[in-house]
Structures are given as C-alpha cells and as structure tokens.
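Suppose you are handed a protein chain with no further information: no name, no annotation, nothing but its sequence. What can you learn? This example shows the usual starting point.
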Amino acid sequence: MRKALLPAILAVLALPLLAQTNHQLQPDTGLLDEINHIMAIDNHSHPPALDNDGQPDEDFDALPCDPLEPTAAGLMFREDNPVYIKAWKTMFGYKYDDASPEHVKTLVAAKEEVKKREGENYPNWVLDQLGIESELANRIAMGRGLKAPRFRWVPFEDTLLFPLNNSALAAQSPDRKIFFGREESLFARYLNQLNLTGVPLTLAEYTAKVVTPLLEMQKANGAVAVKFEAAYLRSLDFAPAREADAARVYARYVKGGVPGNADYKTLQDFLFHYIASEAGRLGMAVHLHTGGGCGGYFAMEGSNPLLLDSVFNDPTLRKTNFVMLHGGAGGFESLVPYLLMKPNVYADFSEQTWMTSPRHISGSIRFMLEFYPDKVLFGTDLYPLEPQVNWEETGYQTSTAGRTALALALTGMMLDGEVTRQQAIAIAHMVMHDNAAKLYGLSTSQHQ
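A reasonable first move is to predict its three-dimensional structure. Written in structure tokens, the prediction is:
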C-alpha cells in the first residue's frame, strides 16, 4: 500500500494532543461551507501521470511501499472505508450503497468513460472535483497530463546523500535493502540525465558536477521545492559537518570499500546542508517527511521533527524555507508548533488525513493555528492504489477530511473566543491557499 500504512501508528493515535482536541460535535456549518468552496493549493501529493503508450506510470514515488513485507492497514485507510462510496457517487455517478464486485465493475467502467472523455485533461478534471486549484506533485519526473499551473513539480533528492557503497546501510533491515536498491537506480538515472558515466573522484567535483547541476536542471524544469524521504533511510539528525571531514570520507571510499556508519553520516550531513543551501539559492523550498511511515521496520525515533532542530537553527540556511510534511503525524504532532517559531519553517497536515478521523486531525491543526496560522499548509498526500480506490478516491478522502478538520479546529477557536468569525474565515483561506501561494510564489488568484 502507501506510506501512511504503519500499524504501529495506531498505538499512539489514542494519546491526547496536549488537551487540544475539539469537543464540539459538528463544525460550524457556515464556516465549513466557506472552506469547502476554497480552491486549494495542495502542498503534498503523489498524482499518477496518464499511461504512456500502454505503459503505466511508475514515477509517482521514489520509495513506494508495495514491494515491502505486507503490513495490516489501519481502520481509516482500509478499502472498505464508506467514504470511498461517497467519492464514487460524487465523482462518477455511482448508484449503489455497497461495494459488491458486480457494482464495482460499473464504477471502473464509469471511470474509464470519464478518462476517455477528458483525455489529456483528465488530471485537471480530477483536481476540479477535489476543489484543488494547484497541486504540488512529489514525483521523480512529471508525466502526461501533469502540467503547470495545475501541477507543480517536487522532485526527490535523497539519493544525492548516498554516493558511496550503501551495502551496510541496506543490510540494516529488509525494508532498507529494497529502498537503497531503488535509490541507487534513481542515482544512475540522475547521472544519465547529466551525461555522466560515473561518480566524480572528489567531493568538490561531486557537488559541482552532480548536485548543483541537477538542482539547477530541476529548477529550470519547473520544480518549486525538493523532497527528502530520509526518515526511511536514516535518522533526520542532520548535524553540522565540516567540508574537510566530508571530503576525507568521500575520497577514501569513492573508489571502493564500505564506509563506517559514523564516517558516512558525516558525508551525508554535509551533503544535506549543501543541498538545502543550494535549494535556497535557487528559490526552492525543502520538504521533509516527518512522523510515521510505512513498513514493518520503519524506525519511528528517526522521524521525530525535533531531530531537525540543528538544521532549522543553522544561520547559513536561513535563506532556505523548510516544510515539515505530515506535521509529525504518528505521535509528534504536539512538537511541530514550537518548531514553527523558526522564521523559515512551515508545516502541513498531509498524511494525517489518511490515518485518522477529522476530529483527531483537528486537534493537531488547532495547535498549529494557535501558534502560527501563517505557517500552516493544506495537504492531501493523495496516492494511486487500485482501479477502484485510486488517487481520485484517496484525494476525495484526504481533501474532505482535511477541510472538515480545519473547520472543526476553527469552530473550536471561535467557540472559545480565540478568533472571530471573520478571523476564522481569513485563516481558512490562508491555510487552504494563500500561505502556499506566498511560500512558492504562485498566483494568488483562485479559479471560481
């Protein structure tokens, strides 16, 4: 399945979020209606491209979780979630109240009819149904139907952190064995894009001939941000590292041998800071996966957003904007608002909309809004799965849950006298659209 499917998360979801949970039973109807009519900017997603000459798209994720050992899906993201029937009815005219195999066949046929009718416009049609003006597409490369301004590119950069022999890292768990295999394939793909046949022999050449040119190429091809899934591969503890120490490690192992964990971490830490600095120079934000992830071997302790403290406190990186994706979902949500105090740090609540109910999500959102409402971003983390529950349905689920949760959070703040109705409406527009428009330099005009 996808990255949110982590059974261990279920154990922490019952914990209270520092008493921030909203106790009202329903969101204010007028406020929810306002939010439902906002054409949003989706800060994080994995939309698939249209098939190309019969070949299905595989670039929607650098580290898809399907190849991993299967783990049980949590209640909210099982395929019998009744919200998917609502999605079918709303988007495709589904006439049934169940998901029997016979009825699902009619759904799949109806989807194919819409795809045929819409052609290249189908991805835009899906965004229209979801009330999304523009979507940041986290992908290896863009593809058919995913065109600006509706879709904005966010490529992956983790592979640039691991230019040496990764066999020791791959041996840390069955999941990482699969993931490092994929990262090395992506590394080769990037080298090919740069017309390089091998890795340069010095760190200075590596950054000058691989890292910087790749980032510049991605920027020129429309990237508005770059993404790190590093928590699947190592800890988010990117400590400061001296270039001389990193260069020594690189030179010692670039021709062969397996670097020790401490030495390799020094090189990775330096490269992360270098990439983040270059991204800032080029005007691209840095997205970071925080919180829970998929796989039975995922190391939760390494995904704690507090591990990024030294990065956010680095004065040399103050020209780089960082976004904590998923808002620390899976138990770290209460830590995120304090990190938003950093002037160049933002957070979204994508993935939370997959895992939990709007009521739970609303507590996380409210806590962030009570600190920095101008730093909070709407996100879905929509993802392609199977024909009957694909990115259209996951987009409907996550968009609906996110809007409802935001309405619940703001309703609670109104009832408690923290904001007026006018302020709540203004904050809703900030979260759903305007904060992202400002962060990424996108148009502030919305489709009506």
